[in-house]
Amino acid sequence: MTPLFRFEGIYTPVVTPMTADYGVNWDALAEVIENLVDKGIHGLVSGGSTGENYAQTVEERLAVAQFTKDVVNGRTALIVGTGAMMTPDSIALATGARALGADAILLATPPYSVPTERENALNALAIDKAADLPVMLYNYPGRMGVHMGEEFLDRVGRSRNICGIKESSGDINRVHLLARDYPHIQMSCGMDDQALEFFAWGARSWVCAGSNFLPEEHIALYQACAVEGDFDKGRRIMSAMMPLMRILEQGGKFIQCVKHGVTMNGINTGPMRPPLKGLNKDDKRALEQVVRVVKTTIAEIQNEQPKAKG
Q: Cα Rg for the chain, rounded, in angstroms?
């Protein structure tokens, strides 16, 4: 069966720049979006956790999504995140995504409630029905408390809207399971340090927050592995990116690092909404040093002349 939507390439969960008083900085958000479109990102995710959705109302999230849609103006795909603790909020976000003309929605397990497989599936199907758009599921048990397991996948997979899954469990056996037993649900990398393995197992897309500030480098890995099938080159690019992935994940400062990375590129993303605080000087220096090395190393790999065969 041909999927309603093909998830191909790099999808950026967009940061939400803030003013000093924690309002959305619309001008800076427009700059972020324009830069990503200009660099060739294949799609944007509005209202993800990287965009601080947990600290925004449903109305704010829909306003950001509408603004993103207007700025993109059809130049790349737009996925709207529907993750929320309360089902009515997720349904409102799904309905809003349909009204504004999003290409797809990102559908996660409600955090904290720890639903059963059946409860989680019925919740997902209610959100799917409200949107009636292509759906990328989001399996992130580290934040949500439970897996989107086989019973869940068997139930929701009956909907033709379920086109993909962002797999962020960190369990490589999940990659094997999805590739072997659920090939009709497109697998998308949601665990940055496993991107090479995802591509080797047939993933065609990667939802990666680091592409907010290193779009070309993330595209380079996708291009090498998923498009060219050159895993020798892919391993070298991945090796160059590993220090970045370690620094993004250490100490629970993921969003802070991503926003500072964007600010390093000349677009001031401002503070995080509470309870998060910005990076200290040492953390900023460490990130800046790693980014410099990543850019230089991957540029050298990209500029190498291909070796003659035979």
A: 19
User: What confidence tens digit (pLDDT) does each residue in 60-100 have?
Assistant: 999 999 999 999 999 999 999 999 999 999 999 999 999 99
Tell me the β-bridge partners of 135: 105, 162
Both tokens of 305, joined, read 């002349």
Distance CA 37, CA 298 (A): 21
| Nearest residue to 44 (alpha-carbon basis) of 13, 81, 70 | 13
Domain architecture of the chain: domains with CATH: 9-228 (3.20.20.70)
Please report the beta strands in 170-288, taking only residues with DSSP state E, as ranges in sequence order. Answer: 186-189, 205-207
Over the range 91-101, which residues count as b (16 or more CB within 10 Å of their CB) and which as e? bbbbbbbeebe
> How far is it, in rounded angstroms, from Cα 108 to Cα 105?
10
Positions annotated as catalytic residues are: 138, 166
Q: Are strands 186-189 and 205-207 parallel, antiparallel or unpaired?
A: parallel
Distances (CA, A) of 52 to 69, 233, 300: 18, 34, 34
- The stretches of 39-116 forming alpha helices (DSSP H) are 58-72, 87-100
